[in-house]
Amino acid sequence: MTYKEWFLQHAKKHQNILKKLEDKTPSDILEYFKFENMVKNEQDFCLLYKENKKCHNIDDLNCYLCACPYFRFNDLGIKEENNKTLYSFCSINSKKGSIFEVENNIHQDCSNCVIPHKRNFIKKNFDRYWLNIMKNVEI
Predict the structure, then answer these.
(1) Closest by Cα among 13, 3, 1 to 131
(2) Is residue 18, in this structure, part of any structural domain at all?
(3) What is the per-residue pLDDT across 22-49, written as a single tens digit (0 to 9) for each?
(4) How many domains does the chain have?
(5) CA dihedral (57, 59, 61, 67) positive or negative
(6) Cα 79–Cα 83–Cα 89 angle in degrees, nearest 5
(7) Is residue 90 part of a domain?
(8) φ and ψ at 21, to 5 degrees?
């Protein structure tokens, strides 16, 4: 699956959940998107939920911004670096982020960065229409 395919599928899942929460406040919505609640009520939102496994091992993991608004990708490649194609990167160059290389490909590794999963960050960037927050992810 490409980044774009995943991203668009995820946007639809997110939208469907928000339809169920139309009458809820932003605080209620953030509460709903807590990992523990999502595992129980939205099994199809994330592949890891079926294993009751977190993508980031932190307390109070919030899944509202599952994809990070600072993640940039292009399935066709962004640029060439050292004879390899860069497909994704962090637009803020997070200190917790890194890259991983496979054969001729370079990808962003966000596994140690928890910025988009913290309640205060989500609250600050909240929009009921997830794609408004994510509008710059694809380049």
Answers:
(1) 13
(2) yes
(3) 999 999 999 999 999 999 999 999 999 9
(4) 1
(5) negative
(6) 40
(7) yes
(8) -110, 20
